[in-house]
Amino acid sequence: MIAVVAVPASAHENAVGIALLDKVAADTDAVEKALVDQGFKNAVVAHGEKVGIGVEVVERNPAQTGFVPQAKRWVVERAYGILMLHRRLVRDYEHLRRSSESRVYWAMTAVILRRLTGATTPAWRTA
């Protein structure tokens, strides 16, 4: 997890994308490319060029019907699934955005530590 931006549900995806690109660009120089879905518009792509991160919009093929997996989308969905294993992130318990963002960092730190130590289940789930 490189950066987290917590926003209200009413925030437009473009504003969130721009804020996230700014945070990533400020925190690291290693990110060169970002993949986004069709909800993001040209404003995010243009802002990515300004901060030095190439933004590619992953679009569905209109000729295909039904469920078709999108490139690299499974990585995002897996991260959402991992975060939902942490009870403080399942509901909106936090009142401050900084608190919500810190909970995401804590959850991903727990995941990394569990992978490094070889533990197979979260400590709070064991009897």
Shape: globular
Average residue-wise pLDDT = 84
Would you count the extended β strands for me?
2
- Provide a count of the helices: 5
Beta-strand content bin: 5-15%
Distance between the termini: 29 Å
InterPro entries: Tnp_DDE_dom
Domain Transposase DDE: 45-114
Protein name: Transposase, IS4
Structure description:
Pfam families: DDE_Tnp_1_2 (PF13586). This is Transposase, IS4. 48% of the residues lie in helices and 6% in strands. The chain is mainly alpha-helical. The protein folds into 2 domains: 1-63, no CATH class; 72-121, no CATH class. The protein has a two-stranded parallel sheet with strand order 1-2. The chain is globular, with a radius of gyration of 17 Å.
Task: Write a concise keyword list for the protein shown above.
Transposase, IS4; Tnp_DDE_dom; mainly alpha; 5 helices; two-stranded parallel sheet; 2 domains; about 5% strand; about 130 residues; about 50% helix
What can be said about this structure in brief?
With 127 residues, the chain is mainly alpha-helical. The chain contains 5 helices and 2 strands.
Question: Topology, please?
Answer:
Elements: H1 13-27, E1 33-36, H2 42-51, E2 54-57, H3 73-83, H4 87-90, H5 97-117
Parallel strand pairs: 1-2
Helix pairs in contact: 1-2
Protein name: Transposase, IS4
Domain Transposase DDE: 45-114
Organism: Streptomyces bingchenggensis (strain BCW-1)
